[in-house]
Design goal:
de novo design (two linked rop proteins), alpha/beta, 8 helices, about 20% strand
Length: about 220
């Protein structure tokens, strides 16, 4: 089996969907705009630096959604898709995905952004299989702000792909993996892939990919 795995933010999208969702909730009045932006910016800086505490971040990032409930959340996300995400789905990213699908590869998005934000985005890309940060739910089925299971972040992406393989009665030896990512945070999974591709890479990943002779793809200008 050939697996084509794609990171989402700054890889398939030229933006960070998690950060952009936070900015969007500011725009629609769900947060104290000054306090939220300062904290959102700090978490994003931590992510870029490779020191993000994913559990603290998910509590912060999902708080506004959790407090407003599923009906308001769904309505807001539909607006978010229309205004912030769909204009950022570029033809070159769609073609890259579709070329793998046309070749018969099994295509998945593997992202450290939570499932609430990313599932509709994956569907907009025509990708049915999504590995994302799964959110814990209360007795009524609504999110609690905590993470369920292994977060798909750093080494967690490797573990989540391993869980997927096991669920499909496969091992690493049964598949050939191409993995596309922009971030040094994804180094563990890039190193497990037979074909690692640095897409729009950050400075550290670009240098590492150059040193190791990995393919570098500048999907967006």
């Amino acid at each position: 089996m050939n697996l084509a795995l794609f990171d989402l933010d700054n890889t398939l999208l030229p933006i960070d969907s998690d950060y952009t969702w936070g900015e969007f909730t500011n725009q629609i009045g769900w947060n104290d705009p000054v306090a939220f932006k300062a904290k959102n910016d700090q978490f994003y800086a931590d992510y870029l630096a490779g020191v993000l505490d994913i559990r603290d971040y998910v509590r912060f990032a999902t708080e506004a959604v959790r407090l407003r409930g599923p009906e308001q959340a769904a309505k807001a996300h539909a607006q978010f898709m229309k205004e912030a995400i769909l204009p950022q789905i570029k033809p070159q990213a769609m073609k890259l995905l579709q070329d793998h699908q046309a070749a018969g590869d099994h295509v998945m998005i593997v992202t450290a952004t939570n499932e609430f934000v990313t599932r509709p985005i994956a569907q907009a890309f025509g990708v049915q299989e999504l590995i994302a940060v799964e959110l814990a739910r209360d007795s009524k089925g609504w999110i609690t702000g905590e993470i369920s299971g292994v977060p798909s972040f750093k080494e967690g992406k490797v573990l989540r792909v391993e869980q997927w393989l096991s669920a499909h009665q496969k091992t690493w030896q049964d598949v050939q993996i191409t993995f596309y990512s922009d971030s040094i945070n994804d180094l563990p999974l890039l190193e497990r892939a037979q074909i690692p591709v640095a897409v729009n890479p950050d400075t550290r990943l670009r240098q590492l990919a150059t040193d190791r002779g990995w393919r570098i793809l500048q999907l967006f200008s």
